Amino acid sequence: MAVSTTDNYILGLYDDEDVLMEAVRTVRKQGVMIEEVYSPFPIHGLDEALGYTRSRLPIAAFLFGILGTTLALTMQIYMMGVDWPMIIGGKDFVALPSFIPVTFELTVLLSALGMVATFLIVSNLKPYGRPRIYDLRSTDNLHVMAINLRSNRLNPAQIKDVLATTQAVEINEKSFDLV
Amino acid sequence: MHIGAPVREPLVTGGKTIKDVTHDISRHVEATPNPRWLLAMAVSIALLAAGTYAVFRTVWDGIGMWGLNKTVGWAWDITNFVWWVGIGHAGTLISAVLLLFRQKWRTSINRAAEAMTIFAVICAAQFPILHMGRPWLGAYWALPLPNTFGSLWVNFNSPLLWDVFAISTYFTVSLVFWYIGLVPDFATIRDRAKGTISRAVYGALSLGWTGGAKTWQRYETVSLVLAGLATPLVLSVHTIVSFDFATSVIPGWHTTIFPPYFVAGAIFSGFAMVLTLMIITRKVYKLEDYITMSHIELMNIVIIITGSIVGIAYITEFFVAWYSGVEYEQYAFINRATGPYWWAYWSMMTCNVISPQLFWFKKIRTSIVATFILSIVVNIGMWFERFVIIVTSLHRDYLPSSWAMFSPTIYDVGVYLFTFGLFFTLFFLFAKFFPVINMAEVKSVLKSSSSTEQINR
């Protein structure tokens, strides 16, 4: 068999999120590796059912936020206190309370932009992206469970048998050419 | 799965399925523009074009074209700026604060409200930029850029500078929040698209989104953290706007009540503008099953609350002016109510304090016509509030020989109309080419809180 030229998938399609959740648990219990589940909307608990660990994006947000705080304070202290000190309203050169609003805003700005940029990069989201579409209805009303045959020891017929027990509305095959 | 009071009204009515949600929202993006939309667009563009002439003259001949004088140096420009920024508070409040409080009813209205926020902030930004007189040099006055005067930096002790940072951060974060929410819906439209152009455009806009469970998990994390960041941000923006006044020593401005009072006023006017736009949108696009009467009623309740806070703030200001024993402060307030600008003061009081109280009657807050009219009345009142605060405090200068009145010129009016043209042009473009309701989020609450459940089972 010319295994190397294509990526072969078995797809289980579901029309209800609760049925899907149950199906994910059953399929995994039967020893079938699920590559990914594609859904039209977020489903709470699906990440845990698939065995995904928690996202570490909040850590990125925190680090970018700290960077924003540091940059904002450094910039203001340098400009107002070191580079060209001026007495304004009888305040100290480094009038820290006056610097808080800008510091807050830059903290929020860098935290938000940094986290979102991280999210786009790690999720491989880009305007010129050519994603694999397993089924066009996965952005409409169906949840698509994609099972890559290469990462499974069971043969296609066995996997289909497992899926058949899970109230899947359709069970399809799909191949993608490997470039 | 869902635990809630059984008596709670469904969020989506009409027994909609997930497929119906996709169809009902996407079809407006896919349809060819109808004559009503073209007419609305033509009117907005005409307004924008007429306003552009006023903007051109303001920039070409200088801000002397406006009605400002030596005493009243801030008038319509700052009034309009604060008014638009205030309106721009509802979107992020709905999507961020209501997300943190797990208010699922936000899902039908957050998309359009956020779009409105972004457009309102764009309109607001026109006024300080034009008031610079020479906007092409403005970047040096507003941003800490290295320059040949030293470098002579901007003044970080000034609330006007804080405003620059607050508004631009608010705009950027709101835009990012809005766009991230749009990505899954763009993917839906991409996958339904028939034409090559629309497939390419929505394909690029959707950033290659496929809706994998890992991506959704990250998406939800990003939404939650952005909501957590945007909540203090939205409160900070109008707080800082109010500092423009509160840190000065003008009687009527120099009060500590300003930050909370401005924030409440901003939410008040923002919700009113959301209602004005949503009532039109739901009617034109037949979205009555998504933006239901209970959505309108809940927004009206927010209007009663914030309107009452604003009313209490007006009365408190008056009381404190008397109780402080400072005769200048007392004069400023008596002059507001009984001086030459009494009509502006009493328009403000009627529109902002009395009219929202009508929403205590269930008949009125569940009436589309009454809500639509009152939502416009509220925004008229909020415009007068800013006009009263700014002009009545300035027109009585420290020296009676400097006392003056303000009257707007046609260019003041023209620049204001320019922002209306800009706002509605952007909003109509949004309503045509973007999904006006967040399909993915509505789908996620459909099962737990719609009337489909009772029909299917």
From TrEMBL, chain A:
Segments spanning the bilayer are 59-79, 99-122
Which InterPro entries does its entry note? ActD
Q: Which domain of life is it from?
A: Bacteria
Q: Which UniProt keywords apply?
A: Membrane, Transmembrane, Transmembrane helix
Report any Pfam family annotated for this entry: ActD
| Matches recorded under PANTHER family | LIPOPROTEIN-RELATED, QUINOL:CYTOCHROME C OXIDOREDUCTASE MEMBRANE PROTEIN
Q: What is this protein called?
A: Quinol:cytochrome c oxidoreductase membrane protein
TrEMBL record, chain B:
Iron is among the record's keywords: no
Provide the Gene Ontology terms for cellular component: plasma membrane
Q: Name one Pfam family in it.
A: NrfD
Question: Key word Magnesium present in the record?
Answer: no
Q: Which UniProt keywords apply?
A: Cell membrane, Membrane, Transmembrane, Transmembrane helix
Main location per UniProt?
membrane
Membrane topology classification: Multi-pass membrane protein
Q: Which domain of life is it from?
A: Bacteria
Compartment(s) where it occurs, according to its Swiss-Prot or TrEMBL record: Cell membrane
Q: Indicate the transmembrane segments per the record.
A: 37-56, 81-101, 113-133, 160-182, 222-241, 261-280, 301-323, 343-361, 368-393, 413-434
> What InterPro entries would the database entry show?
NrfD-like (IPR005614)
Family membership: Belongs to the NrfD family.
Q: What is this protein called?
A: Hydrogenase 2 b cytochrome subunit
